[in-house]
Specification:
Blueprint lengths: L2 H20 L9 H10 L4 H5 L8 H13 L3 H40 L2 H7 L5 H19 L4 H15 L5 H18 L8 H21 L19 H12 L3 H6 L4 H17 L1 H25 L12 H12 L5 H22 L11 H11 L5 E6 L4 H7 L7 E6 L4 H4 L9 E6 L9 H7 L7 E5 L2 E6 L9 E10 L2 E10 L4 E2 L4 E2 L2 E5 L8 E7 L5 E8 L16 E4 L2 E2 L8 E10 L9 E2 L4 E2 L2 E10 L15 E8 L2 E6 L9 E2 L4 E9 L7 E5 L5 E4 L9 E9 L7 E6 L5 E7 L13 E7 L3 E7 L14 E6 L10 E6 L5 E7 L2
Parallel strand pairs: 1-2, 1-3, 8-18, 21-27
Antiparallel strand pairs: 3-5, 4-5, 6-7, 6-16, 7-10, 9-14, 10-13, 11-12, 11-15, 15-18, 17-18, 19-20, 20-22, 22-25, 23-24, 23-26, 26-27, 28-29, 29-30, 31-32
Helix pairs in contact: 1-5, 2-18, 4-5, 5-6, 5-7, 5-15, 7-8, 7-9, 8-9, 8-10, 9-14, 13-14, 13-15, 14-15, 17-18
Length: 820
């Protein structure tokens, strides 16, 4: 192929790349990382722009600061710099491929590269990855020239490109590793004299190291702890590595992680690539070696820094994958075969382009623009938006004034504890909590708990691509009053954690939420993540409200990552159901581990109910104003039944017609009723439909609000015969029915496998059990029948017996509950 043909082919491909990347370039919002770029571009001076991001090197930001003065800092203007750098990268790749593979290989390399979706995506993002790719290719060009004989310009280009890469992105050391690995391979496989010259090479690398040393000391060494105390792992499984291959052909990375894509075409694509480079190994070996070294270096760097894999780190690999593909395809003699071999990238690009070009694409950048527009429409000058970050949320800041938001924006520091956060919270107005889906700042639920304390309604949730917002209206948060505690919890018979403090159960009306912070210290290392379940009971002992929360340290390490003696906090938020009347309610705490201790750790102090420990009594005051009335009560509504002048029954959980729930003697018929009005609640009755027995269901004592939730329960008498039980209002109106099935009385003791005779005062005697044998198989649940004998007098409480199967360490591995 002639050089002029190569030139015009390259021009056409560059025009195609330009047009494809420019299409709808500003349609999608700037996202979190692009916010940093916008912030740097807006700085008043060059040095301020270079130092805008303490977690990334300065070169790209300084360049963007300059280009923003040329074509603006709009979404298109910011991304246009990446687009132009990508075009220069394609040209540099063609020049490099021309040297090592000839003109035909260069053309096919350019074709594959232009139609690689990952490069197209990077060219449309205001980040430094296309600049980094260009620098990698310039270094590759210089190295290739040095392999063929030392020249002064090649040394200068190599040092400049390598140093610039180190000052462009934190993967710069991977590029230095790649260069040195290639040189060693060239020395091992080349002929003497060695090229590039060893002394010259070592001198160049020493110079680069000295010039990079200031940045290494000041910033790079601190990167592992710069963003979060959490450390993410890189998936090195076959599926995780295959996802990296997907990342070249499907964008964005979230589509690889969460999309429901057909894997077979990508697997066939990988098989074609492997077969192609294997059959034309000599043409593909150096690009393939570069690709493999860079991928391995990136993965190793991510492991060291504690970051997750992402396809953006692979943009520097794009030209080498393209060169391996194009260079190998160019070695086939027949034009038809060459064309057929390079068509698959075009097909995948077309599919990816169609999927992602629409502003309504299923996977796209975080839509900060739509979220800020929501804040502009929903909030006023007295309101606040709260967001977590290790620095200001610059993507929100970019649109804040542009869209005319009048609310205050407060960025909360990641890793901060309760004492640091409380002074930053607003004390009035509406407060919106912005949640970026990748943030790791509040596993324990601290912020929602503190903001919602005293609130009368759950937050209004707004969701856009990549982020959500929880809007709390008319907040009035209080500083939690902490009370000291000293409660030890056992796991496997050994002390594992101690509750050292918990929030006070402060009095308030039933419609006001209660934030209840919990402080927990580990006594021994926890194999899993401990959680808290806080449960509120009514007078019948039934659960009426529950809040769960994860224990986590301020840096968001959960208990499985904490050492013995380290502390953690959980922030359950209690919100009572609508209509709960004034009164005093017991509040219990259960500490559990879903995987290892799902039934809860065993508390060792205080008043204990099963595996729950009493935290205290919560006094609920009168005066609740339920904003949505009966609609938020969660009780089935009925046509109102007037009981007195100022009281109507408007809902209940009973069934009056159709298939009735079944009760047996000694079991409890329970109802939840919903009343409207302030008149006195009436007594109800539970009676046999044929008048053979009747049980009183007295009204609860004490005052109530205009909307009242009322719990009633009665025990089916031991002597009740089979029939129908009815719950009746004072005037005889039936509101609920149950089918009563009276089981036959058994007086003969059946044959027992194991006798017991254990007496349970006030309950009866456990005579023994039937089955299983001394040895059981765990492949199927072993059947166990417990045989009980009732005492001389009826028992008012309906008890449940549970049987647990324990392993050698005392952990519960199976459980079954049943009513005797």
């Amino acid at each position: 192929m002639r050089d002029r043909t190569l030139l015009w082919t390259l021009v056409l491909l560059l025009l195609a790349a330009f047009g494809l990347a420019l299409c709808n370039l500003g349609a999608q919002s700037l996202w979190f990382d692009e916010g940093w770029s916008a912030y740097a571009a807006a700085q008043p001076g060059f040095l301020a722009a270079a130092n805008a991001d303490a977690t990334n090197p300065p070169l790209y930001y300084a360049l963007l600061h300059v280009t923003a003065r040329l074509w603006g800092d709009s979404e298109v203007g910011l991304r246009f710099t990446s687009l132009l750098l990508g075009l220069l990268g394609i040209a540099a790749a063609v020049r490099w491929a021309r040297v090592i593979q000839g003109a035909r290989g260069a053309v096919l390399t350019a074709f594959v590269m232009v139609f690689m979706p990952l490069l197209w995506w990077a060219m449309r993002e205001a980040r430094m990855y296309t600049l980094l790719m260009l620098l990698v290719l310039l270094a590759a060009l210089a190295l290739e020239r040095l392999r063929r004989g030392s020249v002064r310009w090649a040394w200068a280009l190599l040092i400049a490109a390598e140093l610039a890469a180190l000052y462009t992105h934190n993967t710069g050391p991977v590029i230095a590793l790649w260069l040195n690995t290639l040189v060693v391979l060239a020395w091992l496989t080349g002929h003497r004299p060695l090229q590039p010259r060893p002394l010259g090479w070592l001198g160049s690398q020493a110079l680069v190291g000295v010039l990079w040393l200031p940045y290494f000391v000041i910033r790079f060494a601190a990167l592992p702890s710069a963003n979060s105390g959490l450390v993410s792992s890189v998936d090195l499984s076959p599926a995780g590595l295959f996802a990296l291959w997907q990342g070249f052909w499907q964008t964005p990375w979230e589509r690889v992680l969460f999309g429901n894509e057909a894997i077979l075409p990508l697997a066939l694509m990988l098989a074609l690539f492997a077969a192609l480079v294997a059959t034309r190994w000599r043409a593909a070996r150096w690009p393939l070696a570069s690709a493999l070294i860079l991928v391995a270096g990136v993965l190793a760097g991510l492991l060291v820094l504690g970051n997750e894999a992402h396809s953006r780190y692979l943009v520097i690999v794009v030209p080498f994958v393209a060169a391996a593909w194009g260079g190998a395809a160019a070695k086939f003699r027949r034009t038809a075969i060459r064309v057929a071999l390079i068509l698959p990238p075009l097909v995948f690009f077309a599919a990816n382009f169609i999927t992602n070009i629409s502003p309504a694409a299923p996977f796209q950048r975080d839509d900060a623009r739509a979220m800020v527009q929501f804040y502009a429409d929903a909030l006023g000058p007295g309101d606040t938006v709260l967001a977590w970050s290790y620095a200001d949320r610059y993507e929100l800041a970019y649109y804040w004034d542009r869209l005319g938001v009048t609310a205050q924006r407060v960025t909360l520091p990641e890793g901060a504890g309760r004492e640091e956060i409380l002074p930053l919270l607003p004390q009035s107005g509406d407060a919106a909590l912005n949640v970026w889906y990748t943030q790791r700042a509040d596993f324990g639920g601290m912020l929602d708990c503190l903001i919602a304390d005293g609130s009368a309604a759950p937050p209004e949730v707004t969701i856009v691509h990549g982020m959500s917002s929880r809007l709390y209206r008319s907040i009035a948060p209080q500083v939690p009053e902490m009370q000291a505690a000293d409660a030890v919890f056992l796991a496997g018979g050994q002390p594992q954690a101690a509750l050292t403090a918990h929030g006070a159960l402060t009095e308030r009306p039933a419609d006001r939420a209660l934030c209840l912070p919990l402080e927990l210290n580990l006594l021994t290392a926890a194999p899993g993540d401990l959680k808290a379940a806080v449960v509120v009971l009514n007078d019948l002992g039934d659960e009426i409200a529950r809040a769960d929360a994860v224990f986590a340290a301020a840096d968001q390490r959960t208990t499985s990552a904490l050492a013995t003696g380290e502390g953690s906090e959980a922030y359950p938020l209690l919100r009572l159901p609508a209509g709960v009347p004034p009164g005093t309610y017991p509040v219990y705490l259960r500490v559990y581990d879903e995987l290892n201790e799902p039934f809860g750790l065993v508390p060792q102090s205080g008043e204990i109910r099963g595996r729950d420990m009493l935290l205290g009594e919560w006094t609920v005051l009168s005066g609740a104003q339920w904003a949505q009335g009966a609609a938020e009560a969660g009780v089935p509504l009925i046509e109102p039944v007037t009981v007195s002048g100022d009281l109507s029954l408007i809902g209940h959980t009973g069934i009056a017609e159709g298939e009735l729930p079944v009760l047996r003697n000694g079991e409890r018929a329970a109802l939840t009723l919903l009343w409207e009005g302030r008149g006195s609640l009436p007594d109800l009755t539970l009676a046999d439909a044929e008048g053979r027995w009747m049980v009183a269901l007295p009204a609860p004592e004490g005052p109530h609000d205009a909307l009242t939730r009322d719990w009633r329960a009665g025990i089916v008498p031991a002597a009740a015969e089979t029939g129908v039980a009815e719950a009746r209002l004072p005037d005889g109106t039936v509101i609920a029915r149950w089918a009563v099935q009276s089981p036959p009385m058994q007086t003969d003791v059946p044959a027992l496998d194991v006798s017991s005779g254990a007496a349970f005062p006030g309950v009866g005697v456990l005579l023994g059990r039937i089955g299983p044998g001394d040895e059981i198989s765990l492949t199927e649940p072993p059947p166990v029948t417990l045989v009980w004998q009732a005492g001389e007098t009826p028992v008012e409480t309906s008890y449940t017996a549970f049987v647990q199967l324990l392993d050698a360490a005392g952990h519960v591995i199976a459980q079954s509950d049943a009513l005797p």
